[in-house]
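fyi for ur records
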Amino acid sequence: MLMPEPDAATLARRAEIVADLRAIVPGEGVIESEQERRAYECDALTAYRQLPLVVVLPETTRQVVEVLRYCQARTLKVVPRGAGTSLSGGALPLADAVLLGMGKFKRILEIDAANRCVVAQPGVTNLGISQAVQGLGLYYAPDPSSQIACTIGGNVAENSGGVHCLKYGLTTNNVIGVEFVTIEGEVIRLGGKHFDAGGYDLLGVLVGSEGLLGIVTEVTVRVLPTPPGARALLIGFPTMQGAGDCVAAVIGAGVIPGGMEIMDRLAIEAAEAFVHAGYPLDVEALLIVELDGCAAEVDHLIARVEAIARAYGATTCRASQSEAERLLFWAGRKAAFPAVGRISPDYMCMDGTIPRKEIGSVLLRMKQMEEKHGLRVANVFHAGDGNLHPLILFDANISGELQRAEDFGHDILRLCVEVGGVLTGEHGVGVEKRDLMDAMFNEVDLAQQQRLKCAFDASGLLNPGKVFPQLCRCAELGRMHVHAGRLRFPDLPRF
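which gave:
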């Protein structure tokens, strides 16, 4: 995996840059020593590591503005970072880039119960928002498995999802306003407390932009009334095909669960040994379905889902009988990733999305790929919206296994596109999927996306080396030909 070559001139004036940044962000706001920078050398995609040039931890929007103006004036690259839970290398530092950490922006600025929204700084954790409004009978619906640690700013960057995104939407469906700073240091507000705005959907462009367009300094999210009740079903199947077909049948019947997750045998065994959630161990696939609403509605939906599951070969079906039991069912799912870490020295978590009807066939193809690559895979994913999270198990200490894991992951993602899906559902492209973008987009598509980036960041200073498989200058994308210092047809307007 290649990254942009570090600029020698920038590396040579590192001491000067550090001193200048200390003047902008005084005190402990600049991290310069090699030992302290080690904490920022990677995100949750730990296979790739690189020390940043320097780490800056601003505390105010004004400091963010000044840092970005300084970097833009001196053509310094900037890599934004939240909590570092990105699984695609989106926060991977560069040797000649300023790493801009937003961890000190951790205040909830306003709770507006009347408008059912919360205004928070980007360093507030996902779970922290729900906890802040819990006493009002409200909650924030998107709930990534890392919600105890991941921040709302990072959620905006990656358009994160979670268990409840099937019914209540991803981050993009729940963020109604942002404040962000451009590389030129201009503070821009998009949206607000209203749900729709006229004109171009720039808010939709910013959510999921992976730090390529600007630095988010404030987020307004909608919060929802906590459902009056919820129960979870554990449904075991003798085959993964049956579980996948059941998912499509439930949605096809018009039932939209609050959450719908699948785990295969390997993931079931690991999670049960770790959490003791009461999962059945004699099945090949476990479907966890949550139904929420009033008691009568939930009971009716449970009966409907159980009937559909039995029709598709379910051998066991157990409904939670208390709130504690429901939470225990989900505790196993939420802890599946760390649980798998107990059975393998390393794993690579992939992220691709497929049509629901293809779940069974894609998982069967994945099993066949295990033999090809000589590695095991554990599956635990958001079944309701077809968002796969295969965990490829490997040992980085064994020569060649990391490369085989990467090759395995690339084959899985190409398969997702082949069956009509996409390369990512919620983890983003980052560096992990960057060189696979041409499997999904042609040259014209990619050039158009890069032109959009140029509109926000003409110098390509924000998070370079991510998302796009080939870096181009904005002039190259515009096909501008300059001869003897003059453009052809200089009288024509250019945008």
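The chain has a mean pLDDT of 93. thats all i got for now
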